[in-house]
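Subject: sequence -> structure tokens, single chain

Hey, anyone have a minute? Need the predicted structure for the following. Not urgent.
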Amino acid sequence: MRTTKTKIIIVDDHQLFREGVKRILAFEDSFEVVAEGDDGAEVASLYEEHSPDVILMDINMPRMNGVEATESLLQTHPDAKVIMLSIHDDESYVTHALKTGALGYMLKEMDAEAIVQAIKVVATGGSYLHPKVTHNLVTEFRRLSEREHKGAFQQNEIRRPYHLLTKRECEVLQLLTDGQSNRTIGETLFISEKTVKNHVSSILQKMAVNDRTQAVVSAIKNGWVEVK
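Reply:
Had a minute. Here:
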């Protein structure tokens, strides 16, 4: 039985970068790069011609940048799914991109596994942030909280969700909040990367969330993790 492939458009003004991403995606049988462009001004016409499932979009381009292109595209095609690609991990870039409507934010230092996972998550309706970006957003959350409380920020006592997750899953959830990748979590806990993936899948299912970003946000709100 033939499976439907996830159609992808890559928009980046650096051809060598586009070629590198295409080589990564070529190893995934379920992916198909249907078009590419080098400027945000092309996005709308490419989308209408190819109806992609996911658009990988550089945030910095010479004529129309990725944020502007995403905002314009979503005005006419609100169901479009965009993952922003950037060299910037500053939270101001991230929040601006997400407010515009991007569903993912990836750093260009990403490894192959991360970009594949991001596409799969976003294609199915979830959101995905590079682990380093997640950590920076958590740091910004704490900074804003400190300012709101005039420097007297004190996080309430951590209440690990042992009623919902196993002890190991709670450890993994904390490390996700710290912005660690699956590989780094495995090294920290002395378990395999495959085991980490299994724990993350279990956490998402038990917490009834779609992706690790939502899990981290929910954990912070519930006081289940330490904001470092």
